[in-house]
Amino acid sequence: MANTDTSALTGLIQTAYDRYVEFALRSQPLIRSVADKRPAQQAQPGSSVVFSLYNDLAAATSALSENTDPDAVALSNVSTTSVTLTEFGNASLVTRKLQLFALSDVDPAVADIIAFNMADSLDKIAMESLRQGTNVIYGGTVTSTATVSSADSITSAKIRRAVAKLRTNKAVPRAGALYWCGIHPEVSHDLRAETGSVGWRDIHAQTDSAQGNLWAGTIGTYEGAFFVETSRMYQKAEGANQSTFTTTTAATGASGTTTITVASTSGIDVGDGVAISATTGSSTLVSAINGAVLTLSVATTAAVTSGATVTVTPKTNVYRTILCGKQALAEAVAQEPSVVIGPVTDKLMRFRPIGWYGVLGFARYREEALFRIETSSSISG
Question: Do residues 286 and 296 lie in contact, with contact meaning Cβ atoms separated by under 8 Å?
Fold first, then answer.
């Protein structure tokens, strides 16, 4: 007796697909919102916008003479900050054939992805200016990004110091008496794990009004700042490379400051540790990258052998916690970025363009209103 089963009618057994396609996980763009300084009376259109600041006179503390007319004092020249306007945009070209054959409706998905790409890109452009502020506090006792180690995690003392510096600089808070603080969740973990009577957890556990933050596992307000947790406070390209990289040299080097040419610098970052085969001396750090040439400080008298293996070990992941007051970042816009539906111009009307376009720029406006804390994290990676 033969059964009519799935093996008998294989042509009727098909794989089923869910036509609803989910989007990738996304972090909420928020860095552009820090740019609260914009032109108030722009004179005319231009390729850049110059913001100006008056400088106050020095305090007059000497007593006036009753019979002498005081000398006039000239005002100092204004300080300026220039924002260069640049075109930004991205586009996708959807074919008519894809629209007809696709399992799911493609057009709404493409529009959503383009819109997020616009917000995401603008946030990263704003971060490029914000993250290069000159006021930096490092974790532990180190004095540079390249020397941040896994032990140099954040502490409440670093937050207090940054807030104290902002108040010393007369930076205007962003919400009441509180400064804005952007912090990575893995750095937030270390701050909230800090023990002792001045640590975040003890303070929140003993304060009724703050216990909600303890139960929710959020920072809330702390040490004069209100905290926003976001993964945008660290990007692989800005911090450390997270994978080892091996290549071969194509040139030789001597002791002291040595340059070697490698097959590729992909994945290598300044500050990464380097071990070189076929030579003596301990591992060293990459101090500069110029094209395919690495600049090293090699403590050896032996030359690097051509063809030697270069193994790059990533440095500790470096996270940026940013605190700022008002007018830390300026923004100038010639055309507000927006989604653009392009015209169908091909002969058979098969290619349908959609993208985004804008003309704008960012620059740090009040350096004294911006502080950056560079640390590692105990749960990095």
Answer: yes
User: Which residue do the tokens 């790409």 mark?
Assistant: 117
Residues 229 and 115 in one domain: yes
Q: What is the mean pLDDT of each run of 10 residues along the chain (381 residues)?
A: 87 92 91 95 95 95 94 95 97 96 94 96 94 93 81 92 97 95 92 78 59 57 90 62 40 55 69 63 68 67 61 74 97 97 95 97 97 89 60
Residues 6+ apart with CB under 8 A from 220: 204, 210, 212, 213, 226, 227
Q: Which residue, 135, 131, 128, is CA-closest to 169?
A: 135
Classify residue 329 by burial, with Cβ atoms within 10 Å: 0-12, 13-18, 19+. Answer: buried
109 with 254, same domain?
A: no
Report the run of H or E that residue 168 belongs to, with start and end: helix 156-168
E strands, the chain, are 48-53, 79-84, 86-95, 136-138, 179-183, 221-222, 225-229, 245-248, 256-261, 273-276, 284-290, 293-298, 309-313, 319-324, 329-341, 351-364, 370-375
Tokens 């383009």 — which residue? 114
C-alpha to C-alpha distance for 138 and 144, rounded to whole angstroms: 7
Same domain, 155 and 83: yes
The residue type found at 39 is P
